[in-house]
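Let us practice reading a record.
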Amino acid sequence: MPILDVSDLRILRSPTTILHGLNWRVARGEHWAILGANGSGKTSLLKALTGYLSPTSGEITVLGQRYGENDWRDLRLKIGVVTSAFVAAIPLAERALDTVVSGRFAQLDLWHRTTAADRRDALRLLRSVGLGHLATRAWAYLSQGERQRVLIARALMARPQLLILDEPCAGLDPVAREKFLQFVEKLARRRDRSAPALVFVTHHVEEITPAFTHALLLRRGKRLAAGPRKEVLTSARLSETFDAKLKLSRREDRYHLSFIRS
């Protein structure tokens, strides 16, 4: 059974078709990178996967359970999401530990009654992302890189089968970005049964680390290519994805994309 199965997904917001019959499947053991220019449909796809945007037609199935037939609130707990869209909804005075606990209940601005076990699990996850020493620090006093790792710990609280990282490096300085990518690489290489499949949404091929096995390219709401990373990420396909003449190269197991002037 695949972790995620998207079949003929179509999103129409009159008069614009945002996604055109998208088919995509994520199997166990796979980690995917999604690339596409602005307006390619990446954000709408993520909103549909997490139940925040209703598709016009098509099906989304998570671990054999289909949106529309099963409670979307239960399905949402199986998909962890790290996105900058959450940042504004977290109170500045909220402690890092409470932000992580909130992930167990899929809510922001924690109000749910918590237990000692909830707090122990949250502290364990904070330690796993290297931030155990910041458990009592307020959100306002965390750096951007620290916030991203807190959000990953939060997403893992519900033990999701799929973890979506939506442009997680946006706003990070070069050093913080590399440290964060090293952390993501380590997370992707976990082999325990609780380790989720990763979906990393980005504009930058430089952020795709070696542990990512597959890639999905979107162009104007359509699937341009999907499959094993080494087959999908080519100069020709990325040029078509971003509507420009580009050259893809590799440096020490990382990609680099150059613009070729016409």
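A brief commentary: The longest helix spans residues 174-188.
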